Amino acid sequence: CIRDRHLAALARRTVLGERCPACRKVYVPPRGACPTCGVATAEQVPVGPRGTVTTFCVVNIKARDQDIEVPYVYAHIALDGADLALHGRIGGIRHDQVRMGLRVEPVWTDGARHPDHYRPTGEPDAHPDSYRDLL
């Protein structure tokens, strides 16, 4: 099953997407069908692990049952090789320094099924043209 393969890859700290055979876009997480073309997808491709912040928001309200200090940043992150941004928390940087184009990488915790958050890589910011279609 698509979901099981995706979760198994995440357990290995690898992210898999699926490529549409018609438009060639890669979607993360895999969906089994292209949301643009409606065509079944089966080709799995590794993406990331690094990516680019395409848009973000600063959260100023503490979430119940979450041990995260406010303010914090929640962002759309386009993993390298993917054609759709996913959601993730940004850490390792002050909230007022997060920006569109910021290059980030996942931070995993032991036993987690997905990254705890994403932190800056130190790479130069991505050019806006590289993520314009993902906004």
UniProtKB/TrEMBL annotation:
Basic and acidic residues compositional bias, start-end: 111-135
Segments of this protein annotated with the region Disordered: 110-135
Matching Pfam families: OB_ChsH2_C, zf-ChsH2
Start and end residues of each ChsH2 rubredoxin-like zinc ribbon domain: 8-39
Record key words, sorted: DNA-binding
Top-level taxonomic group: Bacteria
Domain spans labelled ChsH2 C-terminal OB-fold: 45-108
MF terms (GO), sorted A to Z: DNA binding
Listed PANTHER family: BLR3430 PROTEIN
Name this polypeptide is given: DNA-binding protein
